[in-house]
Design a protein that fits this description.
This is DUF3160 domain-containing protein. InterPro entries: DUF3160. It holds the Pfam family DUF3160. The chain is of the alpha+beta class and about 725 residues long. It is about 50% helix and about 10% strand. The strands form 6 sheets. Strands 13-12-1-15 form a 4-stranded mixed beta sheet. Strands 10-11-14 form a 3-stranded antiparallel beta sheet, with helices on both faces. Strands 2-9 form a two-stranded parallel sheet. Helix 6 runs antiparallel to helix 11, helix 6 runs antiparallel to helix 23 and helix 20 packs antiparallel against helix 22.
Amino acid sequence: MHRILPALVLGVALLIAGCATVDEPSPPLQSVAAENDTGFAHSYTFKPLEFTPSAPQYALPLDPDTVTNWEEVVAVLDLGEEEQALLKEHGFVVAAYPFGLESDIVRPYRTLGEHDVPLFLSSDTLYHLYHLQFDETLCQIEKDTLAADLLALDIALLNASEETYRQSSGEAKEAARLNMGYYAVAVALLDPSGVTVPAEVRDEVEAELALIGGQAGLAPSPLFSYTEDYTQYRPRGHYTWTEELERYFQVTMWHGRMPFLLNATAEVSEKEARIQTAAAARTAALLAADPDLMERWERVYEVTAFYVGYSDDLGPAEYITAMERLFGGAKQTLTPDEVEALRQELLTLPPPSIYSGTGYQGVESPEEARAVLNATMGFRFMGQRFVPDSYVFSELVTPYVGEFTGTGAPFTMIGGARSVPTGLDLMALLGSDRARALLDEGGDSAYRDYDTVYGRLEADLAARTETGWHQNLYWAWLDSLRPLLDGCGEGYPTFMQTPAWQEKELTTSLASWTELRHDTLLYAKQSYTLECAFMYPEKPEIPGYVEPVPEAYHRLAALNTMTADGLSDLDVLDPAAEQRLSGLGEVIDRFTALSVKELEGDPLTADDRAFIRDAAESLDDLIIAPESWAALVADVHSNPYHGIVLEEGVGDIDLIVVACPTSDGEATLCAGPVLSYYEFTHPLDDRLTDEAWMRMLRKDPPLRPWWTARYAMVE
């Protein structure tokens, strides 16, 4: 057995320690914040930036006479009276991109340059480019390594289960039969032409495959009896690109969602629970006995844990450890008494933290909800991962939050209850005072017990150490957004000190988080040289401006380095990806240095001005076609009772026009691309793919969040 296994046991145990019981709804984030829960934090290095903001200021509302290029830019960008009014009021405005629909975040820099518009290099650009590297490296590793490892595991475990079935009797034989069916489904999903399904389980396997292929909704599992949400098996994200990725998506979803339950439920008898426990124990023992199989399992788990984190459920590590403690070793065949002893031992471990729909049923109280959650405790072969936003969302909806106490019809309310969460919940808990104010203003916090639950979650997140924020790429990505949510005080450019700018940065953060959820759906998504410089009569050359958020860029640089170093340590980083990550790191460092210069009022060098002016050249090398398109969608929360999912989307590129300060107290209009953001509910049985989302954007796009109208004119 490889020595990584105890570390995995510790990581999973720490992650889910302190989970709620029916009588004591204590949140797991307290344990997640534990100082010894380091995960992959050793790959993250960060030294705080030191700078003193003292950027030039100007007065608001803007006087167009004090803006060097007002008339020229307004004309080129076709800014109407409403856009101009917002620009004067806030010092910036987000508008529809005037040169046609655009979903490439780099191309607008070239187009704007061709029209002699000074460039505004947005933070959105770098966050989007990091998303591309994250999604591409994960996709490449899945294709090159993980799919083959899973297929080898599933074939070996299917063959072993068949052999055991022939040699066993009683409940041990039934456990082997369950494993035969489970791994036959997996092999058939990954390699449909290369599997011979054992006759003894053919009917159940074919029925499971039909449900998975049809993605038909909630239905009893033919193999496991409990209700499963088969809409989850619709490939989404980058998994729609090839048939190979679609197969990998479905088999990984199968391994991540289907538990071998420890307890009887309304749908699973006591005997079935014993059989499921015995079947899970045999899988764990087979892994423990075969170093090659364990190495493959660990590789899949460790690489995906680096990206997304540890499983929210029990797995091979916990079952092996429990059997070693009880029996002196992992036994492949257990007597009925040993199965019961193992079951009781495992029930002393913390239950899962996030309810994922297993055995779906209605509840009327928080206590009933905890009981249903605890009843899902069991073995998942490659369990889906604990991510903080899913936990937050699961806690901030009914029944943990009570009935609506306000007026109107907030986004989160269906039938008088908080039936769906909102991305604003997460952003507020990450530190955005503006997000919390918008929750209050929109009525989305006007529910009984909302403030109580919110306060508990806020305290839990505040207790996290720096190490806790960096234990994997998922947490570190969220951490990189926090500087955007802090708000900007004295010394920052005038436009950044407005409440409207806080909402713009909130949109950037929500869009980047949407990209994170898109890329991790399966686990908790051209060079050009400007021909001439920008010249304005009797004015110094002002080629553009970098959005000055150096602390955000500094954390993003650390996240980018963590990605490269961690994947290199895991021996899964190919040379092309390494080169792209290195190039992105250089660009982020340049953005950081230029931001500090702008904030401290230092003049830019000719080289600095050239970098901004010719930004498309630097950024083009980081684009990977076809993933460079910005539009994407991710379902982040399910409500089977109302038949809906919460969808988070990034749409076509918007244009931001900013009055950037000059040293003489005036301003120059600069423009650049920014991400757009959508949040809406959608039918459960039609979980959106990126392709379907693109069609929706073209034909009948949903409305943007109501609060974006204060700074944006994009509808």
